[in-house]
Amino acid sequence: MRLYIERPIYLTTRLKSDHAALTHGNLTSSHPNVHKTPPSHPSHHHDPFNHHRSTTNKLPQSIMAKLTLLTLLGLLTPTALSLRPSPGCGKTPALVTSSSTTTPLRITSNNKQREFFVRLPQNYNSSTPHRLIFTLHALGGTAQQVIAGQGGYLPYYGLPPLANSSTIPTVFVIPNGLNNGWQNSNGEDVTFLRSVLSTVESDLCVDQDLRFSTGFSYGAAMSYSLACSLGREIRAVAALSGNPQISGCAAGSEPVAYYGQHGTTDNVLPLAQARQMRDRFLKNNGCAAQAEPPVPAAGSQGKVKTVYTGCLPDKPVTFVVFDGGHVPTPRETGESETFAHKETWEFFSQFT
User: Fold this and answer.
1) Is the Cβ–Cβ distance between 130 and 170 less than 8 Å?
2) Distance CA 112, CA 121 (A)
3) Each residue of 287-322: pLDDT tens digit?
4) 3-class SS letters over the chain
5) Do the Cβ atoms of 213 and 237 come closer than 8 Å?
6) How far is CA 186 from each of CA 219, 252, 303, 324, rounded to the nearest angstrom?
7) Residue 105 φ then ψ, to 5°
């Protein structure tokens, strides 16, 4: 259940799921239909009512009574109080329109004009906080290619058809890197993407607890860099065949939910580098140490998926190794489409 109370504040409640008490197990399999138990959402504040007392005291007594009852019943957890709707909630968008997928929006960042595109869901509602997903292009690519599904990409990495079935609508943000890449010199791309977040969230209604980023190759490296720099300000990233050095990792000590995938025969960005990226967040997220999982047999066109155990309950780490090279849309034997978008969406959509 997601409850929004407008004026004086927005309030989001989340009911505990039946599997919140289940153990988040370790699953390693080459089978595409591996079942995973979504993590529960932990309590970040000992007393949500004391923590937000100055705000919640503004609520009518009837609402406060209901929230107190929910807490006593065990249905409302401390993290269920989400007071992070963006400034654009309740406003008519003045910047983003339905044409923002074809006409770029421009801002100045580090004295350089930068551009990005935005895809709104059908029937955008400014009273509903939306999930926000960055989709970042690879080296030599463009935001326009990501939008159109050209140059080896699926449109928006294949996520919109899956997002359409979600009860939480999704806004996609598609920025252009400098010189068709994400070198992130002196952190300038992180600064740019922070500015994009601020611009979009001032215009649209976004749940600031549901920010995500994904990308392939250089786009994966930049998503990883965002996880390092934004820390708890980003919910999760999905790095598809990335590298930890090319976009850098400033800070990088906070836990962030992390999905990675990489090919065994990637001669552009070797698998060992993807493991370094994964290992940073295995450590940050408090995951249990374990032996390196096996890789799929050469020529099998299979994949091995590992969901790590012992991680902080809302900071899972999943890593997929597939038999293949440096490609954004790997397929398993006998499959007509890639698994990449399905795995990415399964990982992102567990956070509500």
Assistant:
1) yes
2) 29
3) 999 999 999 999 999 999 999 999 999 999 999 999
4) CCCCCCCCCCCECCECCHHHHCCCCCEEECCCCCCCCCCCCCCCCCCHHHHCHHHHCCCCHHHHHHHHHHHHHCCECHHHCECCECCCCCCCCCCCCHHHHCCCEEEEECCEEEEEEEECCCCCCCCCCEEEEEEECCCCCCHHHHHHCCCCCCHHHHCHHHHCCCCCCEEEEEECCECCECCCHHHHHHHHHHHHHHHHHHHCCEEEEEEEEEEECHHHHHHHHHHHHHHHHCCEEEEECCCCCCCCCCCCCCCCEEEEEEECCCCCCCHHHHHHHHHHHHHHCCCCCCCCCCCCCCCCCCEEEEECCCCCCCCCEEEEEECCCCCCCCCCCCCCCCCHHHHHHHHHHCCC
5) yes
6) 17, 15, 36, 33
7) -95, 145
**Alpha carbon distance 119, 96 (integer Å):** 9
CB 307 within 8 A of CB 24: yes
Tens digits of residue pLDDT in 210-239: 999 999 999 999 999 999 999 999 999 999
Q: Nearest to residue 257, comparing CAs of 32, 40, 48, 85? A: 40
The angle formed by the CA atoms of residues 330, 312 and 278, to the nearest 5 degrees, is 35
